[in-house]
Each structure stands twice: as structure tokens, then as C-alpha cells.
# Entry
Amino acid sequence: MALILAIESSCDETAVAIIKDGELLSNIVSTQIDVHRKYGGVMPEIASRLHAENISIVLKEAIDTANIKLEDVDAFAVTRGPGLIGALHVGLQAAKTLAMLYKKPLIPVHHLCGHIYANEFIEELRFPLLAVVVSGGNSELVLMKDHLQFEVIGETRDDAIGECYDKVARVLGLPYPGGIPIDKLAKEGEHTYDLPTPLKGEKTYDLSYSGLKTNVINLVHNLEQKGLKVNVPDMCRSFQDVAVGMVIDRTIKAVQEYDIKQVVLAGGVSANSYLRAQMQKEMAKLYVHLNIPPMWCCTDNAAMIAKVAERLYEIKLFAPLDLGADPNWSIEDFKSF
Ligand code: KG4
# Structure
């Protein structure tokens, strides 16, 4: 094993973590959420600038907390994609500079591998494993037959689930990030609005959220035009039932077809209380082990990048210093860069 410093800057969190032989020595996250909240979503240009302002501060705090010297680091790891191109570049430049300065290997890490391996902070992964990755930028069902083997069996055909939560929240006048208020209000509401289930009847593991989002927006506008008030808790409940229902439906089918031993939840939307409860109920019925990571490792952080980097260090998956970021990097190609 080794001493690894990992950097994450793919969206709106600037994060640095240091890990040694599986033990997390520091895990610093600086979130930009308060700035982006004003705009109702992440503003890419502002995100890049804030990463550039914050990266050295976060880096110093991580080094001080871990009480290590940079010259003792064995490798520098960084999220190479997917994510916002300008945001990714800030972390990448920092990692490349450190790797060059200290003449140590550079490890490129796929952001979603990080979300999946965050579960290893809680317990071992058991295969065949199904990772349900639900976040602001991604919605994927990933089959893993062993460590570092990723097969995408289903993905969104349009918007990501978290993005859909955020847009629906905006039309309902709720603050960003929309998943949190919708989750809360849905508990007070009833499923009274009729929202069609996307891809209903199709034999697929894919997801789709753009039509659902448009349905909510149209329904809200129609009610407003008629001078009727939208019952916000009921709309949140109706929307959430369909949005989460799709994920649960695909998970149940995949567990049965691939004889899955363990399901892990990953990404920011795995914080959703309805998704957690439904998943627990349904996986218990199928006698499948479910791992839901605690909140600190559900949202973006560099500890998860460090966790993957340890495995990549063992197989010597190192990148040259002219490495570029890839905003659309597929998890299946995590060894190609
Ligand atoms: O993984 P993440 O932190 O970063 C991105 O991929 O951007 O996920 C953020 C997303 C946001 O869209 C936010 O609305 C959603 O996760 N989210 C939730 C909840 N908490 C955060 N969605 C549903 N229910 C929640 N409780």
C-alpha cells in the first residue's frame, strides 16, 4: 500500500483527501453550494473560478490535518471525468503540478468509480454487485462481476435524476439543490397528480427523466393559467413516487436477472429518504444485501477518489503528465485516457 493524495473538483465541491494503507488521514471538502444556490443550479464558469481560488487552501488544510509532508506522498490521484470541463481542469492541473514537482505517479480516477468505492469505507464489496449511481449529473446501473470491472447495463437516455429534482424544485419555487426540499415536502403530501411513468412497458434498464420534468412543468403552468394553486407537497409526492419508482423497478429486475449478491447506492440522490426506505424494503424481500453509504460519502468528496486510487496504484494505472480531462468519460473505459 501507499500514501496517496487525491483531488476532486468535478462539479461544485473542491476536495482533497489523504489516505495511507486504507486509513483516511484527512478528508477536506469545500462546497460552493451557497454561491450556486442564488442561480438555482451550478454555474460552470463560477464553479471553475471558485475551484481555482480554493484548491490551494483545501490542499494545505488536508496536508496539515494529515500531518504529512508532500515529499512522502507516493502518488497523486485526481478525478479526470466525468464532470464540468473547466472545474475538472483545476483539480487536474493541481495534481499534475504536484506529480511533476515531486516526481511521483499521477493516477486518473473516474468520478463514478469513486462513488461506488465510497461504499468500501463501510464494508467490503461482494460480487456480482449492482451499483445504483444516482446523482446530479449521472443516473446509471453498473454491474460489477469483480473489482474494477464495470458494465453499464442501464443509464439515463436524457437528464440525470438529480438534475430533474433540481428543475422540478425550481418550477415549484423551492431552493437549490432541489432534492432536499422535495424529499422533505413529499412526506407531507399525497400522490394526487397523475404523472405518466417514462419508458413504461419497455424491456430496458435505462431511465428517462426529461419527459417527467416536462410533465410537471406543464401541469404546474396549466394549473397557474386556470388560476388554481399547486398543492406543492402533493406534487412533490407524486413526482418522487415516479422518479424513485423507476430506479427501484430497474434495480429489482437487474437483481433477479444477474443474480446480484449486493446492491450499493451511490451519488447525491442516494441521500433521498424514500429511495433508501423503498430500496431497503425491496432488497429485503429479495434477500439481497444492500449497502447505503452514510451522507458524508454520498456527496462529492476526495476520500472516495483516494479509495479507488489505492486499487489503481496496485495495478500501476498511471497517466502521463499531458493527461487531459474528459467530461464524458465512460466508466467502462476507466483504463483509457
Ligand atoms: O452527487 P452529487 O452531490 O453531485 C452531482 O452529481 O452534482 O448530487 C447532487 C444531487 C442534486 O441534484 C441534489 O438535488 C440531489 O443530489 N439530492 C437529492 C437529495 N439530496 C441531494 N435528491 C433527492 N433527495 C435528496 N434527499
The pocket of KG4 is lined by residues 11, 135-137, 162, 165-166, 177-180, 183, 267-269, 271-272, 299-300 (CB under 6 Å). Residues 124-292 form a domain with the Nucleotidyltransferase; domain 5 fold (CATH 3.30.420.40). DSSP finds eleven helices and ten strands in the chain. The first strand starts at residue 3 and ends at 8.
